[in-house]
Design goal:
This protein has 161 residues and is of the alpha+beta class. The chain is 41% helix and 11% strand.
Length: 161
């Protein structure tokens, strides 16, 4: 027994029709179904609950299809490289103007550059400290020792200086 072809419903006939839509000055032809989907999407973005539920259903349906049909891409392996040489950042600090050579310690710099941090970089770092503990005397003296012109630093509130 052969089955009779099913007659299309009125809804299917309407949905298959095409419309001409002008968007951003460009006219294009879309199906009535696509126009309806765009309207539902706009309603969902506008906060209408029924439309949001419909869009969530579309998303779940799409995800299920992708799970079934699209092969899983292998994730790239992440290689971590740690340099045993602490000097490798010195050139970058000089190039970016974050640090400058320390002429008073030039004689100690046989194996490594002796650098001082620029005051603007120290100030930016101090400004980024949100909350946290107050700076200790040792921390303040370390900052002063490693800064090019430490007298120009504005210390955070609550720091005795």
């Amino acid at each position: 027994m052969s089955k009779k072809p099913r007659a299309a419903s009125a809804f299917e006939i309407i949905v298959e029709k095409t419309l001409i839509v002008t968007r951003h000055g460009v006219a294009r032809e879309i199906t009535a179904e696509e126009a309806l989907q765009q309207k539902i999407y706009q309603d969902a973005v506008a906060g209408k609950g029924m439309a949001q539920r419909q869009v969530v259903k579309w998303i779940l349906k799409r995800d299920a299809w992708l799970q079934k049909h699209v092969p899983k891409a292998s994730l790239p392996t992440i290689t971590r490289r740690v340099s045993p040489d602490p000097d490798n950042a010195d050139a970058a600090l000089l190039l970016l103007g974050i640090a400058a050579d320390n002429p008073r310690r030039a004689e100690f710099g046989k194996n490594r550059a002796q650098l001082l941090l620029e005051p603007w970089a120290v100030q930016a770092a101090l400004r980024r400290r949100r909350g946290g503990h107050r700076l200790t005397d040792g921390e303040r003296s370390g900052i002063r020792r490693c800064t090019k012109h430490p007298d120009g630093i504005r210390w955070p509130r609550g720091t005795v200086e």
